[in-house]
Amino acid sequence: MIYFHLQGAPDFARLPFLCGMLAKNGCEVGLNLDAKLSLDAERQAILADLPAQIVPGSRPITWSGASQVECLLRGIRHALASSSSWEYLANLSFTDAVIRPIPDLQAFLRASAARNVRNFVFNYGEKAPEFPPQQSGEAASHPVYWRNDVRIFVQPVLKDLFANWEKSPLGIAALRPGLFLDEDGDKAELRFRTLSPGERSDRQAFFQAGGYRHGRQWVMLHRSMCEWLVSSDLAHGIWQVMQHVFVADEAFFQTACFHPACPHRQETADRSLHLADGTAQQIDDSWLERLQHGSGAFFARKVDWARSPNLSNWLRGL
């Protein structure tokens, strides 16, 4: 009934447990690996024993770049082509935890479908994009080092915009559509530049017509929505713009699924099935009682397994 698309991360230790919980009750699991991952003998042995299939055509994945979305779109295409038995698709991280039994999730989806709700995509509401006034032909050569796993460069004219983390496009989502982003996956680099006058005019018209939304990347989509996302001209056009917007993994599905012309918009709920709507939480044994008494969520992110022996034991009993 459900196809679970797992997105790769360096930590394989919990994969057997996670895949074992997911690959039950008629569900299927697909693994989408980052091409940068080194598959040593230990990782290959883990993969060989998993009740899951590897999604072909892996490519390097860069934090907050277009490759994050391309990874999921490729997984959706593979799932549609390889199996006709699933009705819903959910994307999860290797580090996620299933905090309610899969049969409960299936019952929830059936009950929701009876109310004409078949997609779950959390967003913070429509935002009015902000466009920096500068137009510059300079190369994106000024380095901004925020993370160890990606190198970020901006045009010198933009360095003040990126000087403060919270006031930058990372912290302020409305600033993201106002810049043009290029990703070099092989080098794990992101490069920002200002828009040309023509690009700015096109983007303003695009977002005025369809709106710009952002939220969390963890979604549950009905097969009909998945088919629309990978085959419709409208979704393709949205992606042509969004692939050059910073943090596209938190905006493409929100912008597409809630677009006024999306045929499945009325079937889409503004919520996530992850704890705290998919916001990263440092979960450990201190969360156990809250989870046992019901949070309304089915998945949780960022479990600190080293500090969660009691939580691990409880999850094994689900």
UniProtKB/TrEMBL annotation:
UniProt-listed GO biological process terms: chondroitin sulfate proteoglycan biosynthetic process; heparan sulfate proteoglycan biosynthetic process
GO CC annotations, alphabetized: membrane
This protein's UniProt keywords: Disulfide bond, Endoplasmic reticulum, Glycoprotein, Glycosyltransferase, Golgi apparatus, Membrane, Metal-binding, Signal-anchor, Transferase, Transmembrane, Transmembrane helix
Principal subcellular localisation of the protein: endoplasmic reticulum
Record-linked InterPro entries: Glyco_trans_14, XYLT
Subcellular localization, as worded in the UniProt entry: Endoplasmic reticulum membrane; Golgi apparatus membrane
Record bears the keyword Plastid: no
GO molecular function, one term: metal ion binding
Domain of life the protein comes from: Bacteria
Topology versus the membrane: Single-pass type II membrane protein
Coiled-coil annotated residue ranges, if any: none
Pfam families found in the cross-reference section: Branch
Protein name (record): Peptide O-xylosyltransferase
UniProt organism field: Teichococcus oryzae
